[in-house]
């Protein structure tokens, strides 16, 4: 196929008589050859990314216009892909949209195994059966690697996510951040990136939050021995703190009874931090997330990184003192107001440690640094970018993914408290909802929208539960494959064309499944480009519905459509796509479910 594309491009170059156009034709020829031969070298089929580049090159050559073509999945009945490139070009070249569209079709048609139609300013791309068969062959060859790309090959990317305060077990919302962050990492790795997963701990014992935690543990430790004092109005008294205090009393006995209040609070804070971090790691493992690095604020302070960061900001002239406090001029870089770095009592602000951490991230040689933050931290984006600019860091390498909230409902009522009367905890809900089911519900919703999860639906073992349907269909494909294998017997069906002529006709259900398989590589690339796992979740549900429809037609040997060997190839290819798609969501795909 690549040879045909290259031949068409060379013919255009040879037939060009106008010397003024020779240079543009040569560039275009080289571009087409490199773009599409590369696809074949890496055993890939052209995707939206390749056709975007091709459309941009045609626009540059034919209309002397620079565009970034928009190329999206088409609505049903309008092909597989659609582009509004004619509408993008028209304002800059003086031609009517229809003539632009037909010119683009004449140029790109030789490079597409299918047909292209112009309609109302758009180009609609329809895959041919040959294209679909090529994709099925590729899927059968690549198996678990089907859909992998190289758009990010060699890129080092740091993804920081969850980073919950170490003041107790993980809240329920942290589960959404964990699922999103892990899936984003997998999507990037699937495109060739080298990804580092990182968790940042705000565990500085000098911070007011950790001091309060320690004082709460100390109070309830004394209470265990009947020596409790009048608690202050702001005393931390949740179930976690009381549990840590009880464990400290059991482990150490009366060891700290006669210590100073400061020492007792310090011991309490250390015990609480150890317990919280251990509990969080255990819960993260239950949801299938393991971090490469755990970076702590306390270590940054010990290593002098926070003071070094403040010194850098002072040397660059973006700090000033006011009323005994040290301030950073973040307003100089677009923030709404300046921010405190060191308070008048000498205590470092939370922001100071955060700046030091982000500066350190920028110094570690990553091409991209992605932060997955909750919606409550969205106001921190502007000040963080401003601080990085003040420090001279390359802000363009930093990306901030803001994840909206998540609610859990039972019988229509929103759950706000956990079983102990405290906050809703992820660990408790994982006892009610299977980990993979919960992840699918989190990931099927775009990160900008609140994920509303109905506990009753999420626990169902039927297809009214989208998470169940998503995890069921690989086993359905495996069931159909086993039936087909049994009906074929020992005959070798590894070659797609062994029993079926190339022109064999699929049933509508088979073609829909083949079409989805052919779209998978492209969908995986788009999901990675937009850091959007919900695209994969939506694709999984589309494949699930197509598989269910096929199963309703009966066993493979009585289904209408293609011969049995061709069905076998389709089922194997579909299972490859299903397994990979679920894996990118961090969900286990099983042959039997």
Automatic annotation (TrEMBL):
Record keywords, A-Z: Aminoacyl-tRNA synthetase, ATP-binding, Ligase, Membrane, Nucleotide-binding, Protein biosynthesis, Transmembrane, Transmembrane helix
Coiled-coil stretches: none
MF-aspect GO terms: arginine-tRNA ligase activity; ATP binding
Reaction catalysed by this enzyme: tRNA(Arg) + L-arginine + ATP = L-arginyl-tRNA(Arg) + AMP + diphosphate
Transmembrane stretches, start-end: 26-45
Record GO cellular component, one term: cytoplasm
Gene3D superfamilies cross-referenced by the UniProt entry: Arginyl tRNA synthetase N-terminal domain, HUPs, Isoleucyl-tRNA Synthetase, Domain 1
Claim: Metal-binding is one of the keywords in the record: no
Domain DALR anticodon binding: 476-593
InterPro entries per the UniProt record, alphabetical: Arg-tRNA-ligase, Arg-tRNA-synth_N_sf, ArgRS_core, DALR_anticod-bd, Rossmann-like_a/b/a_fold, tRNAsynth_Ia_anticodon-bd
Annotated EC: 6.1.1.19
Gene Ontology biological-process annotations: arginyl-tRNA aminoacylation
Domain of life: Bacteria
Family: Belongs to the class-I aminoacyl-tRNA synthetase family.
Protein name: arginine--tRNA ligase
């Amino acid at each position: 196929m690549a040879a045909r594309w290259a031949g068409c491009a060379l013919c255009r170059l040879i037939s060009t008589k106008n010397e003024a156009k020779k240079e543009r034709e040569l560039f275009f020829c080289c571009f087409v050859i490199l773009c599409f031969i590369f696809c074949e070298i890496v055993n890939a089929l052209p995707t939206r990314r390749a056709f975007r580049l091709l459309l941009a090159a045609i626009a540059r050559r034919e209309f002397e216009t620079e565009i970034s073509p928009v190329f999206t999945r088409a609505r049903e009945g309008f092909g597989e892909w659609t582009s509004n490139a004619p509408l993008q070009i028209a304002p800059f070249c003086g031609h009517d949209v229809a003539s632009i569209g037909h010119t683009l079709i004449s140029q790109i048609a030789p490079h597409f195994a299918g047909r292209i139609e112009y309609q109302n300013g758009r180009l609609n791309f329809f895959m041919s059966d040959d294209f679909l068969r090529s994709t099925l062959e590729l899927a059968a060859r690549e198996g678990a690697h089907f859909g992998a790309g190289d758009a990010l090959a060699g890129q080092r990317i740091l993804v920081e996510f969850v980073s919950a305060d170490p003041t107790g077990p993980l809240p329920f919302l942290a589960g959404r951040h964990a699922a999103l962050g892990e899936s984003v990492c997998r999507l990037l790795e699937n495109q060739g990136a080298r990804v580092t997963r990182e968790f940042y701990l705000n565990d500085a014992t000098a911070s007011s939050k950790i001091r309060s935690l320690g004082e709460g543990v100390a109070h309830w430790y004394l209470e265990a021995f009947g020596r409790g004092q009048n608690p202050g109005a702001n005393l931390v008294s949740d179930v976690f703190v009381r549990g840590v205090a009880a464990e400290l009393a059991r482990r150490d006995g009366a060891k700290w009874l006669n210590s100073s209040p400061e020492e007792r609070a310090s011991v309490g804070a250390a015990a609480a931090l150890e317990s919280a971090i251990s509990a969080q790691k255990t819960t993260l493992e239950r949801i299938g997330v393991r971090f490469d690095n755990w970076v702590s604020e306390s270590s940054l302070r010990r290593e002098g990184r926070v003071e070094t960061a403040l010194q850098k900001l002072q040397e660059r002239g973006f700090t000033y003192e006011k009323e005994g406090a040290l301030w950073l001029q973040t307003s100089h870089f677009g923030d709404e107001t300046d921010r405190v770095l060191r308070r008048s009592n000498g205590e470092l602000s939370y922001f100071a440690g955060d700046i030091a951490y982000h500066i350190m991230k920028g110094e570690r040689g990553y091409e991209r640094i992605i932060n997955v933050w909750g919606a409550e931290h969205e106001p921190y984006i502007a000040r963080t970018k401003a601080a990085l600019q003040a420090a001279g860091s390359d802000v363009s390498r930093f990306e901030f993914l803001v994840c909206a909230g998540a609610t859990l409902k039972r019988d229509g009522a929103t759950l706000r408290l956990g079983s102990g009367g405290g906050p809703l905890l992820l660990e408790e809900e994982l006892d009610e909802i299977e980990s993979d089911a919960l992840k699918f519900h989190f990931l099927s919703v775009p990160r900008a929208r609140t994920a509303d999860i109905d506990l009753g639906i999420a626990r169902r073992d039927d297809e009214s539960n989208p998470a169940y349907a998503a995890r069921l269909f690989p086993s359905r494909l495996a069931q159909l494959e086993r039936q087909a294998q049994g009906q074929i017997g020992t005959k070798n069906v590894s070659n797609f064309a062994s029993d079926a002529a190339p022109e064999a006709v699929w049933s509508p259900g088979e073609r829909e499944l083949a079409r989805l398989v052919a779209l998978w590589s492209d969908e995986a690339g788009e999901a990675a480009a937009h850091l959007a796992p919900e695209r994969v979740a939506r694709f999984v549900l589309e494949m699930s519905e197509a598989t269910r429809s096929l199963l309703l037609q009966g066993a493979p040997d009585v289904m209408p459509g293609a011969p049995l060997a061709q069905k076998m190839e389709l089922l194997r290819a579909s299972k490859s796509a299903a397994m990979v798609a679920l894996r990118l969501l961090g969900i286990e795909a099983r042959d039997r479910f």
